[in-house]
Structure formats: structure tokens, C-alpha cells
What we know:
It holds the Pfam family NMT1_3. Keywords: Signal. InterPro entries: TRAP_TAXI. The protein has about 350 residues and is α/β, with parallel strands linked by helices. The chain folds into two domains: about 50-135 and about 275-335, D-Maltodextrin-Binding Protein, domain 2, CATH 3.40.190; about 140-275, 3-Layer(aba) Sandwich (D-Maltodextrin-Binding Protein, domain 2), CATH 3.40.190. It has eleven helices and ten strands. The chain has helices at about 1-35, 60-75, 90-100, 110-115, 170-180, 195-205, 220-230, 240-245, 285-295, 300, 330-335, and strands at about 50-55, 80-85, 105-110, 130-145, 160-165, 190, 210-215, 230-235, 250-255, 270-280. Strands 1, 2, 3, 4, 5, 6, 7, 8, 9 and 10 form a ten-stranded mixed sheet that branches. The longest helix is centred in the N-terminal third of the chain and has 32 residues, at about 1-35. The protein starts with a helix and ends in a 5-residue tail after the last helix.
Amino acid sequence: MKKLLTIFMIALMAFALIGCSSNSTSGGGNSDAGSSGSDSGSSGKPDNYSIMFATGTTTGTYYPLGAIFSDYWNKKLDYVQASSQATNGSVQNLIFIKQGEAQVALTPTGTLYEGYNGEASFDGNKVENVRILAGLYPNVNHLVARKGAGIESIADVAGKKIVPGATGSATEIETQRAMEAYDVDYEGLGKDFVGFTEATDLMRNKQTDVAMVMAGVPTSAVTEMLSTANGMLLPYTPEAVDYLKEKYPWTMEYTIEANSYENQPEDVLSVAQNNFLVGSADMPDEVAYDLVKTLWEGLEELKGSHAVIEQFDIEKALEGTSGIPIHPGAEKYYKEKGILK
Length: 341
């Protein structure tokens, strides 16, 4: 009897060891099964994924959009912890993507193209790890002049004082290009590199003559300048628009429709470029897919959050990408929706 009991115990222990070995092998197989083998992004949906969303100055359009998107993703995706951060704008946003300090950002086409290809302010500093998630809405140039400053057209800005945007920002670059289109010497202008709020104060106190605001329509900074600082929008001429479109192919003609702002009774001709939501190439494909899917499928719910969201259109989500790669996770979603073939 003792011998039978001993044999039974040995057999029981052997089965237990076999079971442990089987469970261990099975767990490793499930882990490997999630691999997608894509060139950018990585495999598998993480248990937790933190996102720093690089936006823009606090009075522009990027800043509230970053907060709205981050809050919405946190609500809809239980594994995502997203937070938005104010920045100096799109140039800094792409640097943050390159350095791994941001996982998601907003940027206009021109800055995105120059960053990815290492041109202009990114000379020798390519941002090759940026990927497109979605095209959202046009980023419009608003050149606002102070009434009484002797400025009736953009050509009259010569020799005046201007707030061109933060140093090295896309807004400053667009200011330089606007001056270039009118043969105005940018270096000969008096410049204050301050934010939109400070620009409004300077205009109100007659300490500056012009400010450039690059943002979606409408934007609070321009609303403030036109309603409280005696500002007026300066139109581009058709010739200047044609010049900019030819030299900088991502540039689009854009009309700021009458009454988009208080004290703006007439249409104002301007230029714009598409704004893109971008992410790091290191973002897992499944995360990119979920962020894009959640954004587009929650559009009706989001529309009351900011006026510019009314302009979002998934049919235009990949227009004007200028050869910048689309994130594989986003690509999967757009193929499902028939936007990509």
C-alpha cells in the first residue's frame, strides 16, 4: 500500500510540472502573436500609454484643441493618459516629437514638410520620426493692423513695428513670407516677440502697429484685437497670393468671410495651409489607430467644444500630406473607411 501511494504521489508531481511548463510556453506565444512587423510604430496595445500633446500659445487655436482632444481620449480610451502642454508653436512641437518629449502634436503643412526634410529652420536637424495621424482644418494668416497707424495695405507695413510671432515659430516664418511677397524689408521692422495676449495689449496701448496671428477661423486673439484694440484685418492681393502659392506649394488661397469677427464687415483675402495632427513613429500602431478612430467617430460629440471643429472633414484628412508618411495605425483606419485604397 505504501509503495502504491508513493508511485501515485510521484505521478501527481510529474503532471504538475508538465502543467507549469505548458502554461509558461503558452504565455510567451500570446505575447509574440501581437507583433505587426511594421517599419514604424510597435506591436501590441499597451496596458497604459502616456501622451504629452504639444500644442501652441495659450491664445491660439492649437492650445484649446490639444486640451479638448486629450480630455476626450482620456474619457474614451481607458489605457490612455493624455495631457496637453502650451508651447511656442509648431516648430517647437516637432522638436519635441524628435526628442521624444511629445508623442502627439499639431503643425501646419509647411513646418511639417520642412521639419521632415531638414529644410529652413530645421537645416541639419531633420525630424524623421514624425508621422501623420490626421489633417484637420486650414491654418489661416491673419495680419492685423492698428487703425490710425497709417497702414492701409500690407505694403504699408514697411518701417513699422510688428509682433511677428514667437522667435522661429511658423507664425514668424509666415510673417517673413508675407513681407517677402510685398518686397518689405523684414529686418527693417521693429519687432516684439511676444504672445498674442501681449500683442493685443501693445496694440491697445499704441506700442505696436501690426501683429500676425496664424490660426483657425475664428480665433480668440483676433477677436480681441478687432473688438478691443482698434484692429483691422489686412487683405492679401491676388498677386501676392499667387506668388506665395507658386513659391511655397502647400500654400492655399483662403477667404476670411465677412463677419467671421466683430468689426469685420467685408470678406478678407488671405492664405492658409492645412493643419495636421501628427504623432511619433514610435507610437504603437494600435494606439495610433485608436486615437484616430476615436477622434473621427466622436466628431459630432466634439463639435460643440470649439468652433473650428465644424471644419473637420474626414474626406480631407489626407489632403496635402506633401510626401510625409502616414502612421501605419492611422493608415489602417483610413483604409477601413475607404479614404485610402
